[in-house]
Diaminopropionate ammonia-lyase (Labedaea rhizosphaerae), 333 residues
Amino acid sequence: MTWWSQPGARGWRCAPAPDVLAFHRSLPEYAPTPLVSLPVLASALGVGRLFVKDESSRFGLPAFKVLGASYAMHKAVTGPVSHVVTATDGNHGRAVAWMARRMGLACRVLVPAPAAASAPLIAAEGADVRVVPVGYDEAVRMAAAEDGLLVQDTAWPGYEQIPQWIVDGYSTMLREIDAIPDLVPDLVVVPMGVGSLTQAVITHYRSGTVRPALLGVEAEVAAGVQASLRAGRLVDVSTTDTVMAGLNCGTTSSLAWPYLRDGLDAAVTVTDAQSLAASDELDELGVSSGPCGAATLAAARAALAGHRAELGLSRSSTVVLLSTEARRQQGPV
């Protein structure tokens, strides 16, 4: 487990995200996901209140990703588009396939070999799924070379508009948290893969009046964001397999980078064992959370054990964990 922090992040300001909640509300299946209070965990961790934003079922899919994919495709498909293409560790590709079917579009999804177990679930949404013998970052490069409209949840120079719409779509999750009466978080913990969700979280909390500490968590074997933060510039890292498939990214989104660099209070890495133990713990408390989502609990435990002062936390603080995926029984999805 490695830790990085910077002072002054809560003073950094940025422009707010557009209001996309109205779009999501226009979809027939829309309903806010639960914000679950876990007083037993709050007591165990020595804080006043602890909540889990439970994204285990969003539009009938087992993750938050559809918030971004649906909004981005709604914005991007304005002309004669016949098919879309993406690369995925699992949940993003399934979300793109779900929205493509709603819009009457063909969909091709490239799945890196380490996430091959997700292929049947994506195919069940009507997509043409191809498992490719490479890792996530190379799969993204392959998708970018395909014909069709690329709907990718990471950005690089020259490809930023659709990733920005995806980030904007994620803001609905945070607007739902805002709607809970008498809830002002002191710490929000978010999983980090390429950094797009973290960009959405930073945008939300660095553009409004509520300014909690923001903690990002990565897989220990795929800590591209923390490597970049330590270097002060974007750094690519080699990754190895992890149960946190959605966090197995070695290249940080170029669009997210300025937000991560300036607006994130702290970053921590966790092991597979820590994320799996946290998933089991949340399951016992009635929250379905896979390794990527449960990594936030492992991160909060590390932060509260040794870094309270850095984050401005006390025994009366309110902590919110963003649990981004459902618990799974077998294979990374």
